[in-house]
Amino acid sequence: MSFETLNLHPLIIKAINEAGYTTPTPIQQQAIPELLSGHDVMASAQTGTGKTAAFMLPALHQLATPPKVRSRGPRVLVLTPTRELALQVSEAATKYGRYLPRTKVVSILGGMPYPVQNKLLSQPVDILVATPGRLLDHIQRGRIDFSRLEMLVLDEADRMLDMGFIDDVEKIASATPATRQTLLFSATLDSAIDKIAARLLKTPKRIQIATQKARLENIEQRLHYVDNLSHKNRLLGHVLQDETLKQAIVFTATKRDADTLADNLSTQGYDAAALHGDMNQRERTRTLTKLRRGGLQILVATDVAARGIDVTDITHVINFDLPKFAEDYVHRIGRTGRAGALGIAVSFASGNDKIHLKRIENFTGHSITSHVVPGMEPRFKPRPATGGRSRKTPNITQKRSRSWSNDNGNKQNFNSANGSRSSSPSRPYGDDSNGNRPFGNEHNRGNSRRKEQRQKF
Ligand code: AMP
Q1: Which residues have C-beta atoms less than 6 Å from ligand 1?
Q2: Among the four given CATH numbers 3.30.420.10, 3.40.190.10, 3.40.50.300, 3.40.250.10, the one describing domain 3-210
Q3: Burial of 433 (0-12, 13-18, 19+ CB in 10 A)
Q4: Rounded to whole angstroms, how far apart are CA atoms 213 and 23?
Q5: pLDDT at 362
Q6: How far is the CA of 348 from the centre of ligand 1 (A)?
Q7: pLDDT tens track for 173-223
């Protein structure tokens, strides 16, 4: 299938061709025709699947026809959980709509000065991309006219739910015309999301795209056991020497650690910078722009700050500290392996992280193979093999292929499916997972399961 067969406006096709897209991704193939025919849609699609274009291209197509109502307010409203994602959606809208008239894009984000936003909102807007809290503020102050709003998009609805934004989202939706077309995108479509959809969408078409497991298949996940901070730092140095590394995101547990580690790496001569919630929006935007333009090799970040980052050259994600929540692991490593590229995700874990690891593995349905770097072996004995088997230490040349359970509980081979891109001289320990996946099918888990998964480690 080509973009031409989707009947999008020729000036949108022109912009897509310039972006280098030749074939619509599965979510685009399924969602675009439904959206063009005016249906409400709820779709499960992760970042990295091309979901932004899946809703933005039909939105722009709609903007190519003159509005039915005369007003200066937005015709398309996109709500996102984070500022970073909002900025990316805005950039995508500008990119895909560059040849169309009437595509003024405005972002209204928390943490930015009100006077600037007031000015932006006093001018004509076509596409408004916003985080819920700040937008609601402006609505309550009477600064937004939704009389000509035609489309409402809830991007990463599951995340908005998890972050406690859903009440705001519903208040915002109730301020928009009932005639609007509503789209809901979420990593998972579970019962909690179904309830929101039932309140906000009209007989939506349901589209289910690849599972999280499938999304992770082009990411090689590795584990290194660490004894202490200095061991971790040495291993980090080793990973950063990987010759396939173009750009990397290193995740730390705290903002302070992000600053310290970024400073240390800069002192060692890397182009490194921190990104976290204590930085003001201007600093965050400057750092992200530098990352996108390739001027930054290593970004040291905390979870929330790094959500939604979409930079194709990020070859490595390094969990310097494991995330607090198992699902953040998936969001973190999804920063690599973008747009079909292969990615490497390296996690450091200490002896105390055993339960954290198990939860992550249960959540993703993958068992992460542990590697050792010759000369940097951990002193403590990593997790024992299950079933009373003792772990055999493989010899240095013996690199076992990684394996994990597929949906049927069968083991799949990473190397045969995707090819290994490893060039670093590390080697895996035996795969000691027993393949039991109590929460294997992420898409079927309900709200109580969501809470369970998001319990702090
Ligand atoms: P998203 O899932 O929207 O975050 O998109 C992930 C990445 O895929 C972005 O870098 C997009 O530019 C890219 N992308 C979106 N659609 C296509 C396509 N049809 N062909 C190639 N790349 C695409």
Answers
A1: 21, 23-25, 28, 47-53, 310, 312, 338-339
A2: 3.40.50.300
A3: buried
A4: 23
A5: 79
A6: 30
A7: 999 999 999 999 998 888 889 999 999 999 999 998 755 555 677 899 999
